Fold these 2 entries.
Entry 1:
Amino acid sequence: LPPEDKADKSELLWTLLTQGMENMDRDVESIQKHIVNHCQFTLARTQFNLDSFGLYQATALSIKDHLLGMWNVTQQTFTNKDVKRVYYLSLEFLVGRALQNAVLNLDIEGEYSQALMELGTDLEKLYEEEKDAALGNGGLGRLAACFMDSLATLDYPAWGYGIRYRYGMFAQKIVDGAQVEFPDYWISYLNVWEIPRIDVSYSVRFYGEVRVVSDSPRVVEWVGGEVVQAVAYDVPIPGYGTKNCINLRLWSAKPAKEFDLQSFNQGDYLGAIEDRHKSENISQVLYPNDNTYMGKELRLKQQYFFVRATLQDILRRFLKRPREWEELPDKVAIQLNDTHPSIGIVELLRILVDEHGLEFERAWGIVVKSFHFTNHTVLPEALEKWPVELLGHLLPRHLDLIYDINYRFLQQVQAWRPGDMDVLARMSLIDEAHPRSIRMANLAIIGSTHVNGVAALHTQLLKTTIFKDFCEFFGESKFQNKTNGVTPRRWLHQANPGLAAVITSWLESDAWIANLDELAGLRAHIDNPELAADFARVKRANKVRLAELIQSTNGIEVDPDALFDIQVKRIHEYKRQLMNILAVIVRYLAIKEAVAGGASKAELAAAFVARVSIFAGKAAPGYHNAKRIIRLITAVADVVNNDPDVGSLLKVVFMPNYNVSLAEVIFPGTDLSEQISCSGMEASGTGVGKATLNGALLICTMDGASIEIAEEIGHDQVFVFGALASEVDGLRAQVQFNTPPDCAPLAKAKAAIRDGTFGNYDEFPLLLDSFSGRNDYYLINTDFESYLDAQARADAVYRDQDAWLRKAILSTAGMGFFSSDRTIRQYAEEIWGVKPCPRE
Ligand code: OAK
């Protein structure tokens, strides 16, 4: 420890702090005392008012104390060794619950379980008391959370940075069959996991004007406007099998002191209070859009607020020792999780030029070397483009700098392709179409050293379509692939203890938890019927658990022996939940026809595999067609589930409020996982990894990560269908100019919707129109028959349970590559240049 820190502390304080940094007692009695202490002294509860939630809080607080001991030493180690750190900047972290994750990562579940049992409660019950931390929408946010787990587990010197939204992802209720949104006030009670750092706070300016201080050399300053404070809240992130514990720093907006003072001095007491509210608005709510961009000023405010605070924090840490600015990229790698934090590129440039007086070119060189950028979508509607006027009003100095960056960049482009005005227009940071806007992806590309996609096909598409010009200009080496992964700790070890135990016993080791490649060892036992029996037993138990949850949330009774066919993810047209429910309608109509034709029970059972079609997912509140799809699913469910002709041959379930905790119950109980996006449109998909890891079979298009998963587990294990990404453009042109008629089964399904079989809702004609004929942008008609065929193949295999189980085992066994540990190692080695830094 640096001796100067010691100077102002007494010897006793110094010694006690040093001893107290870690090694909390892990025996049952100490744990009990620790928990009870928190009940009494942190929560001020007595034996008369201590409920389960209080006990959960006290238990979590005691676990947090363990984490903080580890956290302190970890951070001190990073500082002492002066290592290069990676900073993961993300507007979203979809973490979910933390207690069980921490208990398992610390390998202390046995002790806590016993300690609580003796105190008269059940640890598992306390897990359920925790509210999900839902600071994210879907794939991108959950990926960030998996990455934090892997970064900690692999001992990387990493920090996550995000926003502490007061309202996370909205809670979804289904009212009269339709989605209704409710606010998710997740920190209404004490959030036990966070440490407020009132002393770590930075000011953030908005609006105002740029003043020229001197012309030569040119010096400007940004003054006036509004100033708010960003206050840090730290969340410790434990790794598995390591004593390292890293930090997730979330910023909360508070009124700035100067700002308040001014109002108070003017005697405007109430006005000042109002202004307090205004500034706190910034971190109030997570924007609930997934894969779409909403050009709202408050969202840009959030983005700038976030990067301004984060960069000040990063630079403060960097400047703790005397350094040259050129060393910044040797000590700091900043990863941008999509373009959402990309205004940070301009902010760092501004800090270096305006606040530290660096010459532009020198500063720009340092900036580019420090940043790296991940793209998560090729959907045009998701690419961020901020209107010039809006950005210039909110961040006037940044707009100047964007023009400067663009001017210099376009000169290079011009030299590269003299006279090619089209390429200049395409690569410019400014889209000249009305209203003129800033293309944040272009900014992120030219302001970063590396750009990556999240699956092989996606990266290929980036290089050949939306980022083609840039790839040719900068060369291929700037563009990398980093196929997504998921953390095996949460998605197998925690979510599926039954399967985890089976795997550990067959591999005679639990090394797979930290090294998922070990799963391949299951293949050696593939012909052993006892392994199949173990898999079958665990899957059935997980399906029973899921069936009980369906019974309690939806009031629908489902048969655990039926095939559980599951599509859980955000509702989006490109993901084609609509195609899924249309195929369910086809199945329903076929059952009805068979019954009408006089089929006996036995004949029905021979003709149809009993299925439960399960859906879950949220629609963005303003995304009308997504909401109509939910409406259709619930309408079909109402009819099918109450039709005595159908019985248990088919059930349809829409589970409300899909979130991380629900996913932890759903994936282990999945038989068949639907990954049926229109090819080329799902960048990667991560639910696919979670389901397959848990021994689900895959019905999928050749899209995103499914392609690589099929490769790893063997194409034979997967039910593939549909057009290839390379065929999609041609097929769309065909739909446009030579529209084919609906295939017969699709026509039938549509007719049933139209004739009111599932009720007469205003929504349905609009929904039908949205994908009929020339409007079929997502190629539902094109892929429909091949989808039905894949479903029939799945049914056939399900009838042969031995064959099914063999595929399920091979699916799990082939998932080693899709651990987020592998992904993170690749980022660390191929992009960031950071090395593991285990604690001293
Ligand atoms: C969200 C907002 C804007 C842009 C993209 C997203 C997003 O969540 N994209 C998703 O990212 C996941 C993680 O990389 C991918 O697995 C999904 O395919 C992609 O849709």
Entry 2:
Amino acid sequence: MRMVDIIQNKRDGKEVSKAETTWMIDNYAKGEIPDYQMAAWAMAVYFQGMAMTEIADLTMAMVETGHQIDLSTIPGIKVDKHSTGGVGDKVTLILAPLVASFGVPVAKMSGRGLGHTGGTIDKLESIHGYQVERTQEAFVQQVKDIGISVIGQSDDLVKADKLLYALRDVTATVDIIPLIASSIMSKKIAAGSGAILLDVTVGSGAFMKNLDDARILAKTMVDLGNAVGRKTVAVVTDMRQPLGTTIGNRLEIAESMAVLQGGGRPDLRHFIAELAQIMLSLGGVTKSIDEILTHLSNGAALDKFKQMIEAQNGDFDDLLNTPTHETAFSKVVLSPKSGYITDFDALVAGHLAMRSGAGRAVKSDRLDMDAGLRIFKKIGDQVVVGDPLFEIVYNKADFDAELESQVMLDAIVIADEKIEIKEIVEII
Ligand code: URA
């Protein structure tokens, strides 16, 4: 086989066979196919798309390029969860302990943030002492002992994706539905859980900017999961504004703690409870929204979070006593007019938080765990001129808070008519 023929066939809109796909991915992972040929193939996929059988072949070929996690010694249906990326997305931090508090085991590998999106692993590392790297044995044992572990993705899981994702990142080939679907699902399949909840975000802060694309991505991933015997459900969720009221590592941990203590915004609590209901049902447990919310108010979910942090060497008491750390600088921005918030652009807010120090522009950037954004008004909220809209907290002396505030203000729309949005747009 020759890579040039595979590229040419894809370029000309012909289907690529399973044997060709497997050969290509296997040899790419071994370093025998150069990046320039893979990049040409990815761009051909952008223009020609892929048939469902090709996407399934690609996904399974990618799974085969790394280690697969064996969770079979943990009793019960293990349920995984994955978000396609968002701004202020702290769902895993609340949802995982909440689900585990009902006895459904959660063995989850999460990622780091890049660009405007944050990563659960970075947020957890803002907890003093918390270890995100565990051996597979320790990971499995912890889930057996306490029903929950959230760790960083192991290096030898889906090697081809690591290479291909880095290549796509620099060749304008990230936002291609078949490549996103195979990238995410190969990692989920290799991670070993029997059931998967996918949070497919849509809106300015997400990869998918419109509902039609989000639906196609969601359906593609659900079909991929179900085809290999993983019960898979996708929830399309609104990411036109940041999730919750904070963006930034420690800020989001503190907000998650507040929700786990029965506080936080009611809409965030309710959204997480709805996701928990789906995840629990994938794990064979039926609970009402009220029963689920009770585990946020009675300390059951908080206790699971505490157990997980302590099992991974984190200092829970420090977190409880000092949820956030003061930064050297802060700037509160007030509303220039009265009305209702109808837009609070998640992409702009994500970029602002990144530049404040909370995120990375490139992989090697160091994070400021305490920097970020506090949001006081969200879409649907009423504001009166002079009300605080948001606060930027930061430590970098060269951060231009005046300019950044103006850019954010320009991306917030205040109108006369109230609009309502629902976090869950549809379930697929
Ligand atoms: N997240 C992934 O893991 N892969 C993609 O391709 C896009 C988002």
